[in-house]
Automatic annotation (TrEMBL):
Pfam families: GMC_oxred_C, GMC_oxred_N
Cofactor field: FAD
InterPro entries: FAD/NAD-bd_sf (IPR036188), GMC_OxRdtase (IPR012132), GMC_OxRdtase_N (IPR000172), GMC_OxRtase_C (IPR007867)
UniProt keyword list: FAD, Flavoprotein, Oxidoreductase
Protein's UniProt name: Choline dehydrogenase
Top-rank taxon, per record: Bacteria
Entry annotated with the keyword Oxidoreductase: yes
Annotated coiled-coil segments of the chain: none
Organism of origin: Actinophytocola algeriensis
Residues reported in the UniProt entry to bind FAD: 214
Keyword Protein transport: no
Amino acid sequence: MAETFDYVVIGAGSAGCVLANRLSEDEAARVLLLEAGGEDDADEVHIPAAFSTLFKTRFDWNYETVEQKNLGDRAAYWPRAKMLGGCSSMNAMIYIRGNRADYDAWPDGWKYDDVLPYFTKAEHNTRLTGPYHGTDGPLHVEDRRYTHELSHAWVEAAVTWGMKPTDDFNGETQEGAGLYQVTCRNGRRWSTADAYLRPAMTRTNLTVRTNALVNRIVFEGNRATAVSYSRHGEEFEVGASTEILLCGGAVNSPQLLMLSGVGPASHLNDMGIEVVNHLPGVGDNLHDHPAAPMLWRTKGTTDLVNLTTPGRLLRWQATGRGPLASNVGEAGAFFHTRDGLAGPDMQVHVAPTLFYDNGMREPTVPGFTAGATLVDVASRGRVRLRSSNPRWRPLIDPAYYEDPADLDAMLAAMRTLGEIASVGPLARYLAGPYRPATSEPTEDELREHLREITQTLYHPVGTCAMGSVVDAELKVHGIDGLRVVDASVMPTVPRGNTNAPTIMVAEKAADLVRSTN
């Protein structure tokens, strides 16, 4: 007979670690957490400035999209973390919740006033306090312990250009320019594995298994009863007497539902998968924040990459300070590209180095980056299976710029970033354009730049959305004993980095699960 737990949590990422902690607070509840990756044991996981060195390593699912016609028919690389902590162990650590307007457009029970208590419950902010911030939660949020002079100069230039200064993007209003707070503790990354999972692993009622790839969810009729997974070359099945919580993220959660027979029937039939529940919304509504950096050569200053020396590594190890405490994307802003929007449609991330192609290119000259990120996204894509084999990567199509409004907004943002770069506080450090190669690019040159350089900002959501796939309690329509708890349930992507919203979803989901069971 297969072993049985009360709860089986699939995926030890940003949501799964939260659930493992909160559900195991009940000493009577037996909780199993399954993670396809391994331990978050690389030094680079904990060094803030080193996050992009984890890309395309054993810690990464290393996904690619299908060819994107609006990106010059190229595929876009999508890093997704494969280790304890998930993407909270590999992201740029920027703590952003999104805009009130985002949540007020979500279903009842998920409006801004409903979710704010869960943001504050999770948060341990070292500077900001109520009513918008928590100070005793498990997730440490702090002012970064190193900020380059170029980041300060960009904020000064943005304010001179016309933006208002802000020291809190998560307060009463989101718009303005300022420095980002980060999910770090004393200059070191503080992932959900640090914040939630490790404190819970001393509990005898919590079992954590790494290197466990889930193959499918097992059903008896319309009830999810067990999970089949592979580990160290062997196949296992484990039962769930109360619920299965799927926390795979916007790519892996719809993939696993479809592999298990839950999804659009015609597609499952094409893959040779028996249909358990025809649910056409599974895998649809995929959208992401597209990002496009503008880059300049610099003068009279330093480059962050050149500051990450062995001596400064020793300083960071001893004190948590110095350039290695940088999260690279140190400062930014939220603003509108046109009137009449419910909230800002654009976010900026600036870096005191040349950061493009996901940071996979070694800078050849000292440089500076200002990246435009579209946070009010109209285009919609989808995830589909490539095979019924769970080891095959799925087909990922974010449909970047499929809606012309998205491209128009990015073009407007490019022009704004160019104008800010010409303002004194920053302009004195800029030696000339790097990409695009001209100081005043034409509309056609900007369009070509966007085709060549647009990348993900690592924020895919929506593929198991509330409404079409799950209800407001995150239960899968037509299925008992199964919920999805991760960014895939978000009907629309929040305006900003999605790690804090994912943690919020899991905190609220834990209460929903406990109130039901």
